[in-house]
Design a protein that fits this description.
The structure holds two protein chains of two kinds.
Chain A (H helix, E strand, L loop, with lengths): L6 H15 L2 H4 L9 E5 L3 H4 L16 E7 L6 E7 L2 H5 L4 H5 L4 H18 L15 H13 L6
Antiparallel strand pairs in A: 1-3, 2-3
Chain B lengths: L1 E7 L2 E6 L11 E9 L2 H7 L10 E2 L4 E8 L11 E4 L2 E2 L5 H4 L13 H8 L5 E2 L16 E4 L2 H4 E3 L6 H5 L4 H11 L7 E5 L3 H12 L4 E6 L2 H10 L3 E4 L5 H8 L7 E4 L10 H11 L8 H9 L5 E4 L12 H6 L3 E4 L4 H14 L8 E6 L3 H10 L6 E5 L1
Parallel strand pairs in B: 11-12, 11-14, 12-13, 14-15, 15-16, 17-18
Antiparallel strand pairs in B: 1-2, 1-4, 3-5, 3-9, 3-18, 5-6, 6-10, 7-8
Helix pairs in contact in B: 6-7, 6-13
Chain lengths: 156, 389
């Protein structure tokens, strides 16, 4: 029993993540996921960009995303928000398997939003150490998959 | 290079692993001079911290010498002797800019775990699971230090390696507890736990002006250290009723500030300990908050409780009624080390702070698994073991 303790919080975190990863439409009675993904960047609005000229790497999405910026209250910098452009694109809610395989477009958007924040604030996106481990195991491979998806999930 | 790897619950081994490389411009590589065991590693080794992967290098408290710098590193050069903060901060997000470094937005490479567990992720920390950043640990011959200009600090010439080592984590953790709890002149402060962090919290409370500091533990050698080096009174919790003792020593008021420096694997000698053990074994709670409960009950009305110990998840029988009805302030934090380390190095150089006594044992890296076993079971008077590559 003790040797498998560690899986419990991982499963718990995974269950929460899975719940969040479940298609938004199925949680909200079929409504499309119109929610904006947002971060607050500790830089002034003028440095963050605009809807017409979003910061990298969001600029690579072109017209496929909506972008908006506004000053954050209390001198906290700039709120940067993005979402897939067009109701039809937002209605393409993805399945959990799609999220686990990294096929959900919102994952890519989340990742890019985080990277935009890191680039603007810290000048670079921190990379994990590689190789991440020296001993491949089945549990480790599962964790590696979760790690790879981690940047595309979350509360954004 | 050689490194200490987590191989599974309560399994450690020294392995050959690839040397670290510069992955970002603001990285540098440090050759380890010394690292140390930390109580929070025991939670990780015992399987209480999620997202550990077999083969992960552990360790987060260290001092070393710079051997390579990335093109974005400005404040360090090859040959510098540095102490490195265990938490990694980018230095420019809102949290770092406001001296809340362990909450950095940009240094956890796996934010999804923290967001699922806590709502938001923490900063990255060396060698402390993929949930806490996915960065390799420091119990190795070399370690990569991201955002090196912000997390590494040159050690003044007058400070020896072992004394500087503890400024990496345990000293700023203890100091932060006293500081953020608002300890000031006239206060009576009680500290649960006389490990390195508890001793440093007690010493910090004294230096911040506390009138009396009372440290609580069960191990005589640690209580003796707290008396000698932190200059505080002590209570052996196995020999008395802690709450009654604190009431008596504080004129019936209770301590103004209670600092918990124990964490999720707390011991005690009462029935509550057995209850917590059973619940934890059955995974009906992840952490044992025995010392937190005591601190909340013992604290004076309108006092402050600061939780310094590491907790990972949910606890049972948290005395929320006492918090509300006594009007307590309860705070907690992981360590904002970059905020304190320069000041602490100055205090170490001036002799106000002493840390070398914490290093009760020294071993080479090859013997690190045995060192952790000794540290876990607190045998041979072990407080901290210094690990030298």
């Amino acid at each position: 029993m003790k040797k498998t303790w560690w899986v419990v919080p991982v499963i718990g975190a995974g269950a929460v993540a899975a719940r969040r990863a479940w298609p938004a439409g199925s949680r909200s009675g079929g409504k499309p996921d119109d929610r904006w993904l947002t971060v607050t960047i500790n830089r002034p609005v003028g440095e963050v960009g605009s809807g017409e000229k979003p910061p990298p790497p969001l600029d690579r999405f072109g017209e496929s995303i909506d972008v908006r910026t506004r000053p954050a209250p209390g001198d906290r910098g700039t709120e940067l928000a993005v979402r897939p452009a067009g109701r039809e694109a937002r209605q393409r809610s993805s399945s959990l398997p799609a999220r686990m395989s990294g096929q959900d477009p919102r994952q890519e958007l989340r990742q890019a939003l985080r990277e935009a924040k890191a680039l603007l604030e810290a000048g670079e996106v921190l990379h994990a150490d590689t190789p991440p481990t020296t001993r491949p195991t089945p549990a480790g491979k599962l964790l590696g998959l979760l790690n790879r998806r981690s940047g595309g999930e979350g509360v954004l | 290079m050689k490194a200490l790897c987590w191989q599974g619950v309560n399994k450690l081994s020294v392995e050959n692993v690839p040397d670290p490389e510069l992955h970002n411009d603001q990285d540098m590589i440090v050759r380890l001079v010394a690292g140390t065991t930390c109580g929070s590693d025991l939670h990780l080794i015992g399987g209480y911290i999620p997202a550990m992967r077999a083969g992960d290098v552990i360790g987060h408290e260290f001092v070393g010498e710079v051997v390579e710098t990335g093109p974005g590193v400005r404040r360090h050069k090859v040959g510098d002797r540095v102490v490195v903060c265990s938490f990694v901060g980018c230095g420019r997000c809102w949290y770092c800019a406001n001296d809340l470094w362990s909450l950095c937005d940009n240094t956890n490479t796996n934010p999804g775990y923290g967001q699922a567990l806590f709502g938001y992720e923490t900063a990255g920390i060396f060698g402390y699971s993929h949930a806490m950043g996915g960065l390799r640990g420091s119990h190795a011959e070399y370690v990569r230090v991201p955002f090196a200009d912000y997390g590494a600090f040159r050690v003044p010439d007058g400070i020896d390696d072992v004394s500087a080592l503890f400024v990496s984590d345990s000293v700023p953790t203890g100091w932060m507890g006293a500081d953020l709890a608002g300890v000031g002149p006239g206060d009576v402060v009680a500290v649960w736990g006389c490990g390195a962090v508890g001793q440093m919290a007690a010493r910090a409370a004294s230096l911040l002006g506390a009138e009396r500091v009372i440290a609580i533990d069960r191990l005589p050698e640690r209580l003796a250290m707290a008396e000698r080096y932190a200059g505080c009174e002590t209570i052996d919790y196995t020999a008395t009723d802690v709450a009654a003792e604190l009431r008596e020593r504080t004129g019936g008021r209770g301590p103004d500030v209670c600092i918990e420096a124990v964490g999720m694997e707390a011991h005690s000698d009462g029935p509550m300990y057995l209850y917590d053990q059973a619940k934890q074994q059955l995974r009906m709670q992840t952490d044992r908050p025995t010392a937190v409960r005591q601190a909340i009950h013992a604290c004076r009305k309108a006092g402050t409780v600061f939780i310094l110990g590491v907790f990972a998840g949910a606890v049972d029988k948290f005395p929320l009624g006492a918090v509300i009805n006594k009007g307590l302030t309860v705070r907690g934090a992981q360590m904002h080390g970059q905020r304190y380390i320069p000041m602490l190095l100055e205090r170490l150089a001036s002799g106000e702070l002493r840390t070398a006594h914490l290093a009760t044992h020294t071993v080479p890296l090859d013997q690190a698994p045995k060192a952790y076993d000794m540290f876990k079971h607190k045998t041979d008077g072990c407080v901290r073991t210094v690990i030298r590559p």
